[in-house]
Fold this protein.
Amino acid sequence: MILRAFLLRLLLLLALFPAALPAAAQQQEAPKPDFATQSAGWLSTLDQLQVQLSALGLTEDSYNALRDQAAAIVDQAGQAADAARAAAAEAKQMADALGPPPAEGAPPEAESVTADRKRLADQAAAADGQARQADLIRARADILLRSAAAARLDQFRRNLLSVSPAAFDPETWVEIPDQTGYLLMRLLRPFQDHGSAGWDGVGEMARRILFATIGLGIGWLVRRWLLRHFGRRPSETVPSFGRRVAAAAVHTIAHGVLPAMVTLAAAVICAGWLGDRPASYVAMVALGVLAWGVVCYFLTSAATAAVLTPDEPAWRLIELTDASARALHRALQAAIVIWAVAGMTLAIADGRILLQSELRALLVAAALTAGALALLTALPGSLWGHRADLPAVPEGEAADDRPPPDRPASRPPGRWPRLRLLAALLAVVVMVAGLIGYQKLALYITYLLAATIGIGTAFLILRRMVQEAVGRFLTQPVGATAKLRHSLFPNDRGLWAFETGAGLSADIVFGVAAFLALAPVLGLSAGDISAIGSAILNGATVGGVRIAPLDILGAVVAFTLGITATRFLQRRLDSRFLDKLQIDLGLKNSIRTGIGYLGVLLAALLGVGVLGLDLSNLALIAGALSVGIGFGLQNIVQNFVAGLILLVERPVKVGDWVVIGGAEGVVRRISVRATEIQTFQRSSVIVPNGNLISSQVVNWTHKDKNGRVDIPVSIAASADVEKARDLLLEIAKADSRVSAFPAPVVAFKAFGTATLDLELRCHISNVDNFAGVGTDLRFAIWKAFREANLAFQPIPADISLPQAVQVLATAVRERDGARAANGAAHGGAPAGGGEEAREPSHAA
């Protein structure tokens, strides 16, 4: 029964749940107020904010509240204006769907259509009026924001340039004795009546001392553990910059925190002795200021020693010479003492002890003057000798025994001398401004200078660490890092782009972080920073076009990521897919190049989409420039189209041996505009793609790499031609690079006057071996014919008429000499008689 009742209730609940859900949703969804109510509320709020702005002495909190309310009105009014314009556009579109009203004299339209046309026109007019009214309210809120910013800036300027009593004014010193006595009386009041106050009991004192002792013991153990595991080690002779930074941080904590803990423990014990009484208020404040100053001294002193490391040059963060590091360390230690005392003085004069104006002015002037003088003592160039300015240390000579360089070591290269000069000028300005009464300006410059030095130091350290990490990534020889680097950046250009981009990105990030850290010192509130960031990121509207740095940065990032992804996909296809297919190099290059073009196009479209450009405007611009493109860029377009034809039709592809015009070589690259041909002399010839399509091109490797080597051979007419043929065929068949099919043949080309002209024709499977096979065959033919006594007969060249006459005369003389020798041998006259023998000679 219980189970049945439970099931019935469950079914009833499920049946009622769908009906109850819309009702609950309607109850939760609050009805939106109409535009009239919203605009009335905005106007009322703006009137109240205007009254607040008119009041003098706008505080920081009231200014932030005013700014937030006005900014909210700007956003809400802008959204309302956009919604009203959308409603007006919708009503106008619906009215356009009804068509134009009937012309005069035309049959009237239906009354329902006329009523709908009037209703839609009224809706469009009302929505347009709401949009205009919302724009007016937003403009008024913008003006209020600018007025508030200007009022706050003017108030900040007047406060910064307010004048306090001058320290050198005699009237200031008149009241100093009385005010000093009153301050001392308030400080000593807890000690005068300590008998009636003090500890609540001995147990409280013992408990505080016990807690302080336990804390110090734990701190001591932590200090030893940190130094043992992360401190400096003598075995590390060349530590990396990141390792030096970590060791400096550890030594700062180890040598600075423990004395700081002792100081805080003593302050807690003294505070317990003073007790929580009105008479102890001034003493408690002074005790807190003193403890704060001592803690800052210990931490700053430890950090300075950790950075400079006078006795351990290998762990030094600043590239200073040993002598400069020791001198600078001594100067900074003395300056830190002065700065700590000056800081405590400024904290006492901050107003929490309610000092009178003359005593406060004197304390502030003294603190500012002491701090400025301490800074000036740490800025001389002799304390900042750079290691790069010193000559190399010869073998067997100590570093301290080096002769002085030709130029002083106190002038390090770069921008550091100018920065030190600027710091010295600011220190002088602070000192002078504090003495003449502009103490708020002096304090502002002091805090700004101190914050800039600290934040700038942290920025430089982090930047150096990022550079070291990037350098390690780029130079790692083996391991997963090297594999990732080779996969992402296969060439030096990619590595350079990564190094440059990483450095620039780190500088931007650290620069923004430094500005955010420095903003409170500059007097910028969170609302001001948000407004500056919104103005920078949202950009400005110029000529109806909004230029937003954030959109531009996003477009650049999107385009870069698209190009990187395309290159990565191309490399993966080459290594994982294309290399395993039995296709030639040209087809691989065509596939790879086509994917590259497609990826670049998609990346460009993605960048344009992120940038938010209206493609219709681009179409109008392209239409306007079509005539100029048709005439001025005709060759470029022609070459681009020809490049696409080359990639698709592939009459010429990468790796082909081609001859075009006077250029002969191997195709290395087919780009968008031109094709690169590398000649056999290792020079590059850039041929426009249009020439490869429209001109005659000899392609030795278009279909395959088969080729034929032809070697002409001329032998004497009396030589054995059949023997010569057999020798040629034997030589050709003996070379393994000559194809067996088609078999080599010897062609009997012609009968010369004194020669028999033959030609050896043999096919090879790889035309790249054309020159090598021809050369080796010629050497072999020469050797074989020489051994077989087959004399080569050179082909007679064309000769001139005087040369021909000389040749004939020489031949006649040789013939006459032969006849004379023959006649003398037979004891008679020469054959043919003397006249006959002389005629050729005379004729000659």
The CA atoms of residues 296 and 340 lie 7 Å apart.
